[in-house]
User: Which sequence fits this backbone?
């Protein structure tokens, strides 16, 4: 993996983590209310992950469509692989989905650890 691609991956993970953390902090009262009404921690984690991963899925689809649209521009820069290699596209999407899931999991677990009384205060 090249230096630029590693840097892009770090920026992506940092941005996802920041956005999901911001979403969780804005939803603290809602999460606290749900937990006060009896929602268990696993449900809270699943809900936060579900909402986050829906946005990630939308981003992956739009990103794949955009990358298919610009393949002619970058086809001259690729060596040993075609510009529309399906294994590369699918592999990259799975890699990004896994990284996004990991970046979303930490804020989701933090949300589940919020005591309901503090969240409602």
Assistant:
């Amino acid at each position: 993996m090249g230096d630029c691609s590693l840097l892009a991956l770090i920026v992506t993970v940092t941005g996802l983590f920041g956005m999901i953390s911001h979403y969780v902090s804005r939803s603290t009262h809602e999460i606290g209310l749900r937990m006060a009404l009896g929602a268990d921690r696993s449900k809270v984690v699943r809900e936060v992950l579900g909402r986050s991963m829906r946005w990630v899925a939308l981003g992956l689809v739009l990103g794949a469509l955009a990358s298919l649209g610009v393949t002619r521009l970058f086809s001259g820069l690729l060596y040993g692989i075609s510009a529309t290699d399906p294994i590369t596209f699918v592999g990259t999407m799975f890699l990004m989905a896994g990284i996004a899931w990991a970046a979303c999991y930490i804020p989701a677990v933090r949300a589940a650890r919020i005591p309901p009384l503090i969240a409602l205060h």
